[in-house]
Amino acid sequence: MADPFEVRMRFTALLTHLNAAVTSSQKAANYALKYREMDEDLHSCILEQLERSSMNNRANIMYFIEHLCDVAQREGHAEYVRMIKRDILRVVDAVAPEDGSGAANVKVIRRVLNGLQLKGVLGSNMVTEIEECLKERDTSPSHHAVLSPAAEHHSHDLASLDPSSNRKATGPGTAASTASITTPQTLSKATSMPSKVDKKQAEQRIEEDRERHKRLREEIWAVDATDDGEAEYQKLLDETSDLCEDDFLLMQEEHEERRACAQEAMAEELALQIEEARLQKETMGVTKEAKNSKVG
After folding, report:
1. Which residues have CB under 8 Å from 167's CB, separation 6+?
2. Comparing 147 with 266, which gets the higher pLDDT?
3. Could you tell me where the DSSP H helices lie in 76-168?
């Protein structure tokens, strides 16, 4: 039996190096299924990496979760699916926190949730509930109107340092109230301080999204190899509209065009045969004249 600590370390390394390539997710999912007897420990590794990694890697892990559930269902190991379903709210909170720092990952979460719903991992009620929570997180921290406790404390500190907010009032009982006044300028300073995104991480995210969109287009055109064409034929039949008068007119026009093209081709063929016969006759005449000249 493999060492549990070594298994955790290797699985953690696989999660850390996830990218947009399908092979990276397949490798990590196959490793998790290989050591399925340690599924609880490996699931805890997923949650730990979601809370520790960068926002880009959290998005990659979110896509990996969908792939893991797909492989686990195919292999008949429902424990991974059960644990993902149990901790899906914790996963969503880690990928797109409430402070808005993971606003770029909201689309990723929605896409994965739709995939998990189609695979039967999550119910429609659960997905709808999470969608309601995501509506409030689809903005950056600078667009949040409600301050967190830390931001409120910071705004009060700024207000205490602002001379314009600490002017002494002449009226009685106003000394205590003026000390806690927060001006609109200090409020905007506290709220409009978004975290800077590293340029390298931004470029990496752009490349990974481009790779995923490319793979998505490929999946749209993919055809099941085990299908004999009946499903594709039925799809085309369902998408085709019923015949109407315009269709018959179009067919009549196409028939006339094909007939005209056939007549033109026959005329060209006949003209070519006549030209070949004329050239052959002239050649025979020249040959006969040459023989008569030799005899004379």
Report:
1. 178
2. 266
3. 79-86, 88-95, 106-118, 124-134, 149-161
